[in-house]
C-alpha cells in the first residue's frame, strides 16, 4: 500500500514538472528551458549596422575630390537609401574647423583629414573612434597607415590614401636618380650652372618636412621611437647632428638661400629644364606630367652612412564627427568610401595612392611607374607624429635650418637651440 502511494506521488510530481517546463517557454530546438527564444529581428540588428531612419550626411573634402565623392554617394544612396552631400573643405583645414563646428552642431558628419591632426581632434573631443569596422579596417590596410591613425591605442579614422616624398626627375636631363648622394654630387658638378639657374637637385631646405628624411636616415627622431613622447626629443642627438652636418655640406651644390627655394620655384625650374631632380610628393604628379614630357620618379638616394633616407609620410583618412546626429550612417559611409573598390576608383580618378593592401598591390596601381615608386618609398617612411606637440616642430626647425644653411652655423649648436625652443613652447602650451 505504501509502495502504491509513493508511486502515485512520483507520478504527480513528474506531471507537474512537465507542465512547468511547457509554461517556461521552452520547446523543441529552443535550448535550455530558462532561456527565452531569440528574437530574429534583434539578432539581425546585432549582426548588421543599419543607418538611422531619415539620415542625411554632409562630407567635407578638397575640391578635387568632389566628383569622386559624388559618385560614391550615388552608390551609397542605392545601397542604404541615405543622401550624402559634398561640401568643400580640405584635409589641411578640416580638423581645426571641426573643433569649432562639431560642438556647435554645424560640422560635417564625415570629413577628410590628415593623421597628424588626430591629437588635436582627440583633445577637443570631436573624433568618434573607428569601433564597428575596426577589425576590417586593420586587416585590409597598410600597417603603417593603421599605426598612424591609432592614438592612445584607439583607432580613429578610416584610411583613404597615403603620401610621402620621393625624387621626380627629367629623363631628358638624367637617366635615373643616382643610388647615393655621392652620385648626386658627381652629377651636380657637371650639370650645375648657377648663373643660368641650373641645378641638379632641389628640395625645400628650410622646411622640416623635407629636412627629416636626412635626420631620420641617420637615426634622428622627433618624439621618441613611436612619435608619442613629447618629453623625448631626438633632434639634437649625435645622429641628428650628423644628418644636419651632411645637409650643410650640400650647400655647395645648391648655393641658394632657404627663402629662395619653395614649391613654386622648384616647379618652375623643373618645368623649364633647369632642374634635373625635384624632391616632392604625389600631389605634384598631375601638374608635372603636363609640363615635363619625360617624367620619372625614383627613390631617395642613400646617405653617406649607407642607409636609406626616411621621409615623413602622411595618411589621409575620413573621420566621423563625434557630434553627428547619424553615427551609424556616418560609420557606414566612411567604411564604404574607403573600401578596396573605392580606393581603386579614387586612384583612377585622382591618382590617390591606396592605403588598402589589395588595391595597392593591384595591377592597375603596380603598372603605374610613378605610383608604384611612391608606394615603395612609403614603406620606408615615418608617419608624422600626431600628438599636439608636433605643432611646435615646424617653426623652430625652419629657424634652425636657416641658420645652418644660410649662416653656416654649427649644426650641434643650432639643433640644441631648436630642442630648447621646442621644449619651452611645449611646456607653455604655445
UniProtKB/TrEMBL annotation:
Its main localization is membrane
Q: Which domain of life is it from?
A: Bacteria
Annotated membrane topology: Lipid-anchor
Q: Does the UniProt entry include the keyword Lipoprotein? A: yes
Q: Which UniProt keywords apply?
A: Cell membrane, Lipoprotein, Membrane, Signal, Sugar transport, Transport
- Subcellular location per the Swiss-Prot or TrEMBL entry: Cell membrane
Keyword Zinc-finger listed? The answer is no
Residues of the signal peptide: 1-24
Write out the similarity annotation: Belongs to the bacterial solute-binding protein 1 family.
Supply the PANTHER family for this chain.
Answer: MALTOSE-BINDING PERIPLASMIC PROTEIN (PTHR30061), MALTOSE_MALTODEXTRIN-BINDING PERIPLASMIC PROTEIN (PTHR30061:SF50)
The name of this protein is Maltodextrin-binding protein
